[in-house]
Design brief:
Length: 379
């Protein structure tokens, strides 16, 4: 890892822990840190450290350059805050709409994760991911496959060509915000682990839809910490294979653990059962080594080898792999499939179960999408 990345993580630790003194850096280093924070969607978070920083020099020219950087950075922070206000308002409104249409909802990721941050509006927002299910009283008789069909049909009444994939369907853009409606929170490529994961979600589903929190001018349901420990980890794992992940996703997980006061599971056993033990060890190493997470928050033994590999992927690719230039096979379907196969091959050494299963799942998923392509959904 280069020296500037080490300094970036120093600054990040200061941003999430006010007790740590901000290091004295040059204007050039602050500019480089700004670039890294931008790629990792952490501009507003890292700005908290910049606010406490000592000006890098007494030289008038350097002071002027530093001042301009602070103003530019602050402008980005204010923009992030404005977007957050808009997205949060839309979360409340869309949850109310689903309730009117007789669906229960639970916000996944996004603004729900932001509630765990010391300054919720510092989290760079994305789209709205929301888990819904029909509001029924015969919960014991409900079948997941029936819910999937019902939700897809419901969304396609509003947008007939809405694209459905295994775990969610695109919802019409809501007041300028992209929305994904989930009928499954997440999934695994390995069919055995995926079956176990879906059973895990089903067993604790009721608690998620009733875990209500105040947000903006409304109330929404958000996942519990026990749910998020599995869900966010499986989401990170999936994106590592698909697009790539960023430090923002790891910071979300850091705050889930920091805010949790009761660890009620043997996570070594649970994560092994669900097939996420290897990625968990990697994330634990990164969070303790570079985020400064305390040992009493570690869920499973750290895995330095896998952790170094994952961190390298994150730093090269940026948030969701947007800045990764290593696997350029073109933007067509054939090129994208080649790129995913090459990624599977790279990940095989560290995550063999997922890497071997991903191409098989992709073929199965293609058939699933064809079956659910028309507005008339088959069972």
């Amino acid at each position: 890892m280069t020296d500037i990345y080490n300094k970036f993580f120093q600054v990040l630790r200061c941003a999430i822990n006010d007790d740590i003194e901000v290091p004295k850096l040059s204007v050039t280093e602050w500019k480089q840190i700004y670039g890294i924070a931008q790629k990792q969607s952490l501009l507003a978070v890292v700005f908290r450290a910049l606010e406490r920083a000592t000006p890098p020099s007494d030289d008038d020219d350097e002071k002027d350059v530093f001042g301009k950087l602070v103003i530019e950075w602050l402008g980005q922070v204010r923009a992030i805050e404005r977007i957050n206000h808009n997205v949060t308002a839309n979360v409340v409104k869309i949850a109310e709409k689903f309730a009117q249409d007789k669906f229960q909802s639970c916000l996944l990721k996004g603004q729900g994760n932001g509630l765990l941050y010391p300054q919720p509006n510092s989290r760079t927002p994305g789209d709205i991911d929301i888990l819904i299910r029909p509001r029924r009283y015969d919960l014991g008789k409900r079948k997941v496959v029936d819910d999937v069909r019902t939700i897809i049909e419901y969304v396609r009444l509003q947008q007939s060509d809405a694209l459905a994939i295994y775990h969610h369907i695109e919802y019409p853009r809501f007041n300028g915000t992209d929305v994904e409606v989930h009928y499954r929170p997440s999934f695994m490529f390995n069919f055995i682990y995926n079956s176990r994961l879906q059973h895990f979600y089903a067993d604790i589903a009721d608690e998620q839809f009733h875990n209500r929190k105040d947000i903006a001018d409304g109330v929404i349901a958000v996942p519990t910490a026990e749910f998020n420990k599995v869900f966010l980890l499986s989401h990170i794992y999936n994106h590592l294979f698909h697009e790539g992940i960023g430090l923002r996703q790891l910071l979300d997980y850091y705050y889930v653990l920091e805010n949790d006061v009761e660890f009620s599971n043997d996570y070594n056993v649970l994560f092994s059962h669900l097939g996420i033990r290897n990625i968990a060890g990697a994330i634990m190493w990164i969070l303790t080594e570079y985020f400064g997470m305390k040992q009493d928050k570690v869920l499973v033994p750290v895995d330095e080898s896998r952790g170094r590999f994952v961190l390298n992927e994150i730093l090269q690719g940026g948030n969701f792999g947007k800045y990764d230039t290593r696997y350029m096979f073109g933007n067509g379907k054939f090129g994208r499939n080649l790129q995913r196969l090459y990624r599977d091959w790279r990940l095989l050494r560290y995550f063999p179960s997922q890497a071997i299963s991903e191409p098989i799942f992709r073929i199965w998923h293609f058939l699933w999408r064809q079956k659910h392509k028309s507005s008339k959904v088959n069972k």
